[in-house]
Amino acid sequence: MTEPLLSTHGLGRSFGKLEVLSGLDLTVRSGEVLGIIGPNGAGKSTLLSLLGGSIPPSTGTIDYAGEDITGRKAHWRARHGIATSYQIPRPFLGMTVLENLLVSARYAADLGKKEAAGAAWYALERTQLTERADDLAGSLRLLDRKRLEVARALAGKPKLLLLDEVAGGLTEQELPPIIELVKAVQSIGVTVVWIEHVVHALTAVATRMICLTYGRVLAEGTPHEVLSSPEVQAIYLGIEPDIQEEAEHA
C-alpha cells in the first residue's frame, strides 16, 4: 500500500464551546484524489483550513511527509508543497493571468525568478490558460477564474493540493472542464484532497471518499461504497436506514 503523504491523529477544532471537528484520524495517500463530502456544518471547510495551516487545531496532530507539522503556519506549508485552491477565486484583478501566477510562485512558494517563470508557464499549460496569459484576471469568466485559482496553486509546485468546492457555482456544461482539470492535476503526480457539494463531479475523479457529519467520519471507502451507505443516503436523500432496509428485503 502507498505510504501516506499526510495523516491526522485525533484532530479536533472548537470555536468557543462549539466543537466543529472531533478526534479525526485521516490518511491521505500519495497520488490519490480523496473526496470529502458532508452536509453544511459537517466540518469540511474547517478541516481544509487545518490542513492548510490557516487555523491551528484545538487537539490532535498533523503529519506531512513524515514530519509533524501541527505547529507550522500556512506560509511554511505553502513553501513545502501544500497548496490551497479556494471556493471563491480572489485573483489580483488588475494583473494579468501570468502576473498572478508569478506572484504565487515568487512569494507563496519562494521560488527564484527563473524558476518562478518556468513554474508559472507550466501551470498555465496544465490549466489550459496559455491563451489568456496576457489578459487581465478581472476580465475572466467564472470558469476561467476557477482555472486560474487552481493554476495559482500549481505555480507553487505542490505535492498536495487542497481543493475547496472548485465546482461550486458552475453550470452543468462547465463541470466537464473542471473534472478534466482535476484529472490533469492528478496525472502530474499531485495528490488532491477535494471537498465538494457537487457530488457527481467529485465521483468522476475521486479514488476514495469520506463523508463527514457533525465533525466526525460517517463513512469511508470508494465513492460507490460511501454513496451506497444507508447513513449517507439518509443525509443526502432523506432515506432513513430502516426504511431502506425494509425496501431491499421487500
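The record above closes out task 2.4. Task 2.5 opens with a second protein, given below.
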Amino acid sequence: NFKNQLLTDHGHNPLMKKVFDVYLCFLQKNQSETALKNVFIALRALIFKFPSTFYEGRADMCSALCYEILKYCNSKLSSIRTEASQLLYFLMRNNFDYTGKKSFVRTHLQVIISVSQLIADVVGIGGTRFQQSLSIINNCANNDRIIKHTTFPSDVKDLTKRIRTVLMATAQMKEHENDPEMLVDLQYSLAKSYASTPELRKTWLDSMARIHVKNGDLSEAAMCYVHVAALVAEYLTRKGMI
C-alpha cells in the first residue's frame, strides 16, 4: 500500500522525497501564522509516522528540515518561534526514542551544521529572538517528566551550549569582518575545534574558502578545498567505500 511505498529503503525513495518536498515548500514560502502552525502540526505527524526517514540512512531530509525549522526559531512572531522550538524539540525527542533512549546524535549533528550554515545565510541569527528559542528548547527538556532520569536533558543542554559557542565565535568574526586574515584565523580555529566531526569541519572549511575567493586569495581557497577533499576521502576510506 501507499505507506509501505513511502517506507521503502527506510523512507529514502523518490515518492517520499516528493512528499517531503511539498512540506519543505510550505516552510520555504511566506505563509500566514495560521497556515504555518498547521504545517508544523503536519510535520509532527510525518516525523512520528516515518521516523526512519529522518533518523536512518542519508541525512539529507533531516538536515533540510532542521535548517528550515531553525530559521523560524528566529521569527519576529513569538508564537511562531515557540511552535518552531517545540517542533525542533519533538524532532530531537523522537530521535532519542527511536534509538531506544540512547542518544539523538543524528539530529544533534544536523542542528549544529544548520546553525553554522544559517550564520552565513540569515541576517540577525543569534540575536535575542534566537536565544529565546534555545531557552524554550531547554525548558521543554527540563519539564519532560518521561525522560527526566535519562541523559536527554543534559544532552539538550550540551547542544544549546554548543550552539551558543558557535554564535559567540561568529560574533567575534563579525567584529573582524574587515580584517580578512583575522577572520580566516577565527574560522580556522572553529574548524579545528570540530576535528572529530568531519561534517562540521567541512562546513567551516567551505565557509573559509568562500571568504578567500571573495578576497581574491585563490591559492588559499584551493587549500581549503584540498582539506575538504582529504576529509571526504578519509571518511569514505573508513566506511570501506573506496
